[in-house]
Design brief:
- The structure is a single chain.
- This protein is 36% helix and 22% strand.
- The chain is an alpha/beta fold.
- The strands form six sheets. The protein has a seven-stranded mixed β-sheet, with helices on both faces. Strands 9-8-7-10-11-21 form a six-stranded mixed β-sheet, sandwiched between helices.
- Strand 7, helix 5 and strand 8 form a beta-alpha-beta unit.
- Helix 9 packs across helix 10.
- It starts with 6 loop residues before the first strand and ends with a strand.
- The structure holds nicotinamide-adenine-dinucleotide.
């Protein structure tokens, strides 16, 4: 593996710099050992980063470029990530614990955002609105200015790429606050910016403690727009800070998403969806399939298949898994692993059964066995609270109405799925599920092109797709009285 630097810096106004809040140890989740140190920003560093982003925005050197030129730079940043994937992937695996092949997928996903939004840069056209003779009226989309982007640890590269590429494509500048647990690989966006000709100040990347640097960024008076992915309490804090400054924000806050499995579903195919749905990234995915709601006639057969699939997964250090396969890495931290295993024990006390897994593994690092809970009922805590780990809850239903009622019975509403051979049934579920995205017969169907975001406590606003471009612009109407 490439020799890693010991010390990783922040990136402000085109330069790598230390931070005013000292250094943070970054742990390898597969061992629990520190392997690198990250510079920590304080509120003054945040001020400097926002000032750089604002100065560049005000200069018009980025927002005033012909959109095709901006788009080309954004696309090149994605190409840079792909060109350096062999260098980046092991760092991502070491800081986040995910298998090497998953790290590569994440980097490819990050690059894909830059390709998609780079291509969209020149599509932000306004419209002309008829006002009768004597008037000419048109709209334009102007970049908001400085976009503050607060990033979670589960997909540190993909989450940054998702917001950053769209913001840059429409002409915004950005200050990114990276997650404390795995901040290192965000540095490669800075390298991409330097290598691809992004003007100094257009991208600033800081790591800092959430309640300090994160809060300073969210509440900064020169920030014009905020995008946040993470927990509900932090989302509320950020939305409150945004409201105080009267700036828009986009919140993506997780979920407790359910797959409804009817008795006519292709159960063998569904097992592969579950493997991706709950064990990809060790279940630390906001849109994870954390609940399966199965028709009672096929419940036992499905549970047998689920247990065999979960027990067939090899669990270990991400570096041991270079190729796509039936394997799973560590969870991100001791705290997250303890929280997840604690939720399993609490569910057992409430009457659920552990069909397989449920225990911390007897080895160093932050590992939890791939877990299936059966006998889960809608009133149990595990049926409505996000575990954010490799823990699947299985519930059963009698008729279609009951299935929808259970699926919609949590405060969240991020994604939902229905598995059936009956297209009418699928369409009924699609219209009744309270979720921003509905998957029919394939969990995670869709991609960068398809809008993503939640109902209820899952947040508001949409990322991905063309919808996300509107997060980063203001629409201006110009009405002209003709003489
Ligand atoms: P978090 O919401 O506390 O942290 C996410 C980001 O917000 C980090 O960059 C953090 O530094 C920053 N932050 C924290 N407090 C802040 C504040 N007051 N102001 C501004 N920024 C702040 O999430 P966490 O503690 O890392 O994880 C806790 C739970 O959040 C998880 O168990 C999981 O349920 C959920 N989560 C969800 C997602 C998702 O994709 N929806 C991702 C990560 C975590």
């Amino acid at each position: 593996m490439t020799e890693l630097p010991d010390h990783w810096q922040n990136f402000i106004d085109g330069s790598f710099v230390d931070g005013g809040a000292g250094w943070l140890d970054v742990l390898d989740p597969a061992t629990g050992d520190a392997f690198a140190r990250q510079a920590l920003a304080d509120a003054r560093d945040v001020d400097r980063a926002v000032a750089a982003a604002k100065a560049l925005h005000d200069s018009g050197a980025w927002s005033g470029l012909r959109p095709v030129e901006r788009g080309r730079i954004v696309r090149r940043m994605g190409d840079y990530l792909l060109d350096h994937i062999d260098e980046i992937a092991p760092v991502l695996t070491r800081e986040a614990g995910k298998p090497l092949w998953e790290a590569r997928l994440e980097i490819e996903g990050a690059a894909r955002y830059f390709e998609y939004y780079g291509n969209q840069a020149e599509t932000m056209e306004g419209r002309s609105i008829p006002l009768g003779s004597g008037y000419f009226d048109f709209t334009t989309h102007e970049p908001c200015g400085v976009s503050a982007q607060i990033i979670p640890w589960n997909y540190p590269m993909e989450m940054t790429a998702r917001s950053l590429s769209a913001a840059l494509a429409v002409g915004c500048t950005a200050v990114v606050k990276t997650p404390e647990l795995d901040p290192l690989t965000n540095r490669y966006f800075a390298d991409a910016a330097l290598s691809c000709g992004l003007p100094k100040g257009a991208l600033n990347i800081l790591c800092g403690i959430g309640k300090e640097a994160g809060a300073a960024l969210a509440g900064h008076p020169d920030v014009n727009q905020i995008v946040f992915t993470g927990s509900v309490p932090t989302g509320v804090a950020i939305a409150t800070a945004a409201a105080r400054n009267v700036v828009p924000c986009v919140l993506e806050l997780g979920g407790k998403s359910a797959a409804i499995v009817h008795d006519d579903a292709d159960l063998d195919a569904f097992l592969s969806d579950v493997r991706w749905g709950i064990y990809f990234n060790a279940g630390q995915v906001c849109s994870a399939m954390s609940r399966v709601i199965v028709q009672e006639k096929v419940h036992d057969k499905l549970v047998d298949g689920l247990v065999a699939m979960a027990e067939g997964l090899e669990v270990g250090s991400g570096l041991e898994f270079p190729e796509f396969g039936a394997n799973m890495g560590a969870m991100i931290s001791e705290a997250q692993a303890q929280r997840a295993s604690g939720m399993v024990s609490a569910a057992e006390r409430e009457g659920a059964r552990v069909a397989t897994g449920g225990r911390r593994m007897n080895r160093p690092g932050f590992f939890l066995e791939p877990t299936i809970m059966t006998g889960v009922t809608p009133e149990m805590t595990i049926a409505s609270d996000e575990v954010f780990g490799p823990v699947l809850s299985v519930l059963s239903f009698g008729d279609e109405d009951e299935a929808i009622r259970i699926a919609n019975g949590t405060p969240y509403g991020l994604v939902g799925g229905v598995f059936t051979a009956d297209v009418d049934r699928a369409m009924r579920a699609a219209s009744r599920l309270r979720a921003g995205q509905v998957f029919v017969n394939e969990w995670y169907a869709g991609g960068v092109e398809t809008p993503f975001g939640g109902f209820g406590k899952s947040g508001y606003g949409r990322e991905k797709g063309r919808e996300a471009l509107l997060n980063y612009v203001q629409t201006k109407n110009v009405a002209i009285k003709l003489r």
